[in-house]
Design goal:
Layout: H1 6-30, H2 34-68, H3 74-103, H4 120-155, H5 163-176, H6 181-197, H7 201-221, H8 226-242, H9 246-266, H10 271-282, H11 288-301, H12 306-321, H13 326-346, H14 350-366, H15 370-383, H16 387-403, H17 407-420, H18 426-440
Helix pairs in contact: 1-2, 2-3, 3-4, 3-5, 4-5, 5-6, 6-7, 6-8, 7-8, 8-9, 9-10, 10-11, 10-12, 11-12, 12-13, 13-14, 14-15, 15-16, 16-17, 17-18
Length: 441
């Protein structure tokens, strides 16, 4: 890992030069020689370092106590986040304390310092300004940074199985900084993802409604941010999938379509948005042909984007499923397979490549394109297959080679599948081996 000492260097330079500045000011007022300047500089640096070390010790002990406290429920998580936020307040207090202590360092010759006594009104005005300054610092600086701390900590819970936790933390961040539009964006996303996981229809509907409210608020705060409009389109797209009433399904589909149109008008060169719009249109048989136009636009913007090639494969696969003519269906299946293989060739991510090859193999099997299925499956097996997957791939390869009469290859893969398969599945592999042996006699 790479460790940067940048923050330490910045702090050291600030400590070094602030000492120079304070010592220089004191030397100028007291008319000291260079020895007096060095002595003052050493005292100032030592004083600053001593106070800083005291703060670091207190800060480290607070960190240790925070980490040592157990987490058993959601409230414990929220309490820990607030404790982390409290560390920032402690830092601010320490910095102000250092500045005040420097101001209180006694001067040997106060007559050299400018004297100007103010009346009571000036003193009151000064205290009022200090009070107002503290309020502004708290509202416009401290709370904003604390909100960002909570937001960053919420990211670790923004994943399947812990969406409710991320929702609570994002809401806490919004309480601290209610004008930050991207907090609402991530809160809305958490609502959508959580809604996809649950089975209760009423609760899911409530989550979608809340996501809609948050995403609309985010867009009102920053209407030119494409992400807000795009997330509204994604919300309605997901909402459509879970809508059982045909009228509501159609209305939400149209809303998603409308928001995607607005999103691409804001960011016309975003190939991802064009692709997502195409996915929506492909989900409806009536608008399926329109998806090709969106895919072509996405391809023009980024011809080397593997996901777009995959979507072309999906488009032709769905088109083939709706065609009755065997000849035309076979042509569409081959086109879909070629796009899956193209997607696999464009990506460097092994998991994505593995998925694309499996899709190509599965569709080739359905289309009775055995040679293409074998090639895609062997490539998938060579890239990234778990131990659980390998024996099934080997079994499928054995069956495919058996279909085209290559008994040696069929027996090789069947034996390999038998060695890798769990004990409860070895019987079916043995039956396949017996079948291959009998066919080769």
């Amino acid at each position: 890992k790479f460790h940067s000492n940048g923050i330490l260097i910045v702090i050291s330079l600030a400590w070094f030069f602030s000492g120079l500045l304070l010592s220089g000011e004191e030397t100028r007022y007291k008319q000291k020689d260079h020895r007096g300047f060095i002595r003052s500089w050493f005292i100032v640096l030592s004083f600053g370092l001593g106070v800083a070390c005291l703060y670091w010790i207190l800060h480290a002990s607070l960190l240790a106590s925070i980490v040592a406290s157990p987490i058993n429920n959601l409230q414990d998580i929220l309490n820990r986040i607030q404790q982390y936020e409290g560390l920032l307040l402690g830092f601010y207090v320490a910095m102000f304390a250092i500045m005040i202590l420097y101001m209180l360092i006694p001067s040997e010759d106060l007559s050299l310092l400018p004297r100007k006594h103010g009346n009571s009104r000036s003193i009151v005005a000064g205290f009022i300004l200090i009070f107002l300054s503290l309020i502004v610092i708290y509202q416009r600086n401290l709370r904003v940074i604390q909100a960002d701390i909570a937001f960053k900590l919420a990211e670790s819970f923004a994943k399947p199985g812990s969406w409710p936790v991320s929702i609570q933390i994002y809401q806490h961040a919004i309480d601290l900084a209610p004008r930050e539009d991207y907090y609402y964006l991530f809160l809305g996303r958490s609502y959508i993802e959580y809604a996809r996981e649950i089975n209760d229809d009423a609760q899911r509907e409530a989550l979608f409604e809340q996501a809609k409210s948050d995403l609309l608020l985010a867009r009102s705060l920053n209407p030119l941010n494409t992400d807000h409009t795009a997330n509204l389109a994604r919300l309605y797209s997901q909402w459509t999938l879970f809508s059982k009433d045909e009228k509501l399904k159609r209305e939400r589909f149209n809303e998603s379509d409308r928001y995607f149109a607005q999103a691409v008008s804001l960011s016309p060169n975003n190939s991802r948005l064009w692709g997502e719009w195409a996915v929506l249109l492909m989900s409806n048989e009536q608008t399926h042909p329109e998806a090709l136009q969106k895919l072509m636009r996405a391809y023009q913007l980024d011809p080397n984007y593997d996901w777009i090639a995959y979507l072309f494969g999906e488009y032709y696969r769905l088109q083939a499923a709706r065609i009755k003519s065997n000849e035309e269906r076979a042509s569409l299946i081959e086109t879909a397979i070629s796009n899956y293989l193209k997607a696999a060739s464009l990506t460097e991510d092994e998991n994505s490549k593995h998925s694309y090859l499996l899709m190509a193999a599965q569709l080739a099997i359905e289309g009775n394109l055995i040679d293409q299925a074998i090639q895609a499956l062997e490539n998938a097996l060579a890239i990234n297959a778990t131990q659980t997957e390998k024996w099934r791939y080997e079994q499928t390869l054995a069956q495919l080679y058996l279909q085209i009469g290559q008994m040696d290859q069929a027996l090789f893969h069947a034996n390999h599948a038998f060695r890798l398969a769990p004990q409860e599945n070895q019987m079916e592999i043995q039956d396949l081996i017996n079948q291959i042996t009998q066919s080769s006699e």
